[in-house]
Design brief:
This protein has helices at residues 2-33, 41-69, 71-94, 101-104, 109-141, 143-161, 179-184, 191-221, 227-250, 262-265, 279-285, 290-320, 333-340, 342-346, 352-374, 382-402, 411-414, 424-444, 449-467, 477-481. The chain is mainly alpha-helical.
Length: 487
């Protein structure tokens, strides 16, 4: 039954599409050949359109009603669920502060908006996260086999391209033939032969360019021997640089955003965030995608505030009941990760100068967080320390949500604090060097492949424990590579 309905619907769409194209063609020809409409072609088409107008309006009304009863209703329920979850999350985070919740941890509009946006994007972001994690895991586990297969394929392709006639667009040369000859010889059929022919053309282009440029390159190395060719080569380099600059100026191929079209120039200027030229590569390598990546740090900071509130409540209960052996502590490593990566996750692009300022400010903020975390062990009134911790985390969360990543804390909050330094790249480099050395040593030895794999795994685990200990979990390596730091 469903198949029959679908077949009828597809036939109706095809008939409508073909009829519309024929009517448009007839209308265009009638305007060109019969301006006065003596043959009444346009009158006939207009009469058909007027007759079909009620049906079209009824179809549009039915589509709007169907959308309102299905998609719009589901969307409304989903947004209602997101608002309810946001309210429950924030109420849960404030629960540990008791009656002083609104004073210690006020729920400002930026924080509430960021948490709501995270809940709205979380389901799709979770699906994309799982898909990317699966792909990265498969690629990582089969990196050696994939690399070897690619090397074999590229080597064979390059060797075959030397014996394949070049396509018609390749420059003239001793091995150039037409595309008809390629097809006649059976080298142009199939995807593999097509790729081989394309590589042969690229190879011919490179050989032709080198054949033409080699005398001038040698002349540039010894300009006194061939001054004319040396001057010609230098002028060619200058013209090539000018050509690239012209491409950048007129087409924006190497800039940060495309130029405005004539239609856009007719309207008022529009604002657009600066976009990094390799944004798609960084988005592909990042596990977290979309707005969930930008708003998740606020959720992490809210969770840290909830932990501080629970620890403060537990400390008060221990103080009231004289539990002298109870010493609740809060670990702020999650907040440190948010601070280290604040500029990368909150903004689409930052310049080199601003990047240095963000790195320095992040070190000062992380130093303040580590200082207040250390006060848990050297001050008598731990409750006061928890309140200062709440003050810092609330300020960081609100200012991150507002985009003030260079003012996460005030200068008086970081005075007298030793700035932290991000050394996780050094640890990751040492770990990679140790594992690479273990793999090379095991490969040069007479140990079997299974034994070599086990040796590399053991050496990597030992190096991991010695370098990171409890600082990093295996699932956070990609975060470190994206610029996030740990303790």
């Amino acid at each position: 039954m469903l198949e029959m309905i679908w077949n009828g619907f597809s036939v109706l769409l095809r008939v409508t599409f073909v009829t519309g194209l024929l009517a448009l063609l007839a209308w265009s020809l009638s305007e060109q050949l019969d301006r006065d409409d003596k043959l009444r072609v346009r009158w006939f088409l207009k009469a058909i359109a007027d007759a079909l107008k009620p049906a079209a309006e009824w179809g549009a009304t039915a589509a709007r009603r169907l959308y309102g009863r299905t998609i719009r209703r589901l969307e409304g329920r989903y947004l209602q669920w997101c608002r309810q979850r946001t309210t429950r999350h924030l109420v849960w985070a404030q629960r540990g502060f008791g009656p002083e919740a609104d004073q210690l941890f006020p729920l400002s509009l930026p924080i509430r908006s960021a948490v709501l946006a995270w809940y709205e994007a979380a389901p799709l972001a979770l699906a994309a996260y799982m898909l990317k994690a699966y792909v990265f895991l498969r690629v990582t586990l089969n990196a050696g086999a994939l690399t070897a297969a690619f090397i074999r394929w590229s080597t064979r392709l390059w060797e075959r391209s030397a014996n394949v006639p070049r396509p018609w667009w390749s420059p003239p040369g001793p091995g150039n033939h037409s595309a008809a000859l390629v097809k006649h010889q059976g080298e142009g059929t199939g995807l593999s032969d097509l790729v081989t022919t394309f590589v042969a053309g690229i190879r011919g282009d490179a050989e032709w360019v080198w054949h033409r440029a080699a005398p001038y390159v040698s002349a540039l190395a010894d300009p006194a021997d061939k001054p004319v060719k040396a001057v010609t080569g230098a002028a060619a380099c200058v013209f090539a640089a000018a050509f690239l600059l012209a491409l950048r100026a007129f087409f924006g191929l190497f800039g940060f955003r495309r130029g405005q079209t004539p239609q856009e120039q007719q309207h008022a200027p529009r604002f657009g965030n600066p976009i990094h030229r390799w944004r798609w590569v960084r988005s592909l390598l990042s596990l977290r995608v979309g707005s969930a990546r930008r708003t998740r740090p606020v959720v992490v900071l809210v969770n840290c505030l909830a932990q501080v509130g629970a620890a403060r409540q537990y400390y008060r209960a221990a103080t009231d009941n004289h539990w002298v052996l109870v010493a609740p502590r809060v670990n702020l490593s999650a907040a440190e990760r948010v601070v280290w990566s604040a500029a990368r996750t909150r903004h689409t692009w930052i310049g080199p100068t601003s990047r240095h300022q963000h790195r320095r400010h992040a070190g000062e903020v992380v130093g303040a967080l580590r200082a207040v975390q250390a006060r848990q062990d050297n001050e008598e009134d731990t409750g006061r320390v928890f309140e200062d911790m709440v003050h810092l985390l609330t300020k960081i969360a609100e200012r991150y949500a507002r985009g003030r990543t260079l003012a996460l804390l005030d200068p008086e909050d970081t005075n007298g604090v030793e700035a932290a330094v991000n050394r996780d790249w050094l640890r990751l480099l040492v770990l990679g060097t140790v594992m690479t050395g273990a793999a090379v040593g095991a490969g040069l030895s007479e140990i079997s492949a299974a034994g070599s794999t086990q040796i590399v795994a053991v050496v990597g685990a030992v190096a991991w424990v010695l370098l990171y200990r409890d600082r990093l979990s295996p699932s956070d390596v990609l975060d470190v590579m994206r610029g996030q730091s740990r303790k």
